[in-house]
Amino acid sequence: MIKVDKEATRAAKFHDLRSYIATWLHPNTTHACRYLYGEDVQDQRYHVFEVDQGKCFNCGAWYGPRSGELHHKQGGLGRQRCWCLENLAWSCPKCHRAQHVQTRWYEKKDSIGQ
Question: The pTM is what?
Answer without folding.
Answer: 0.79
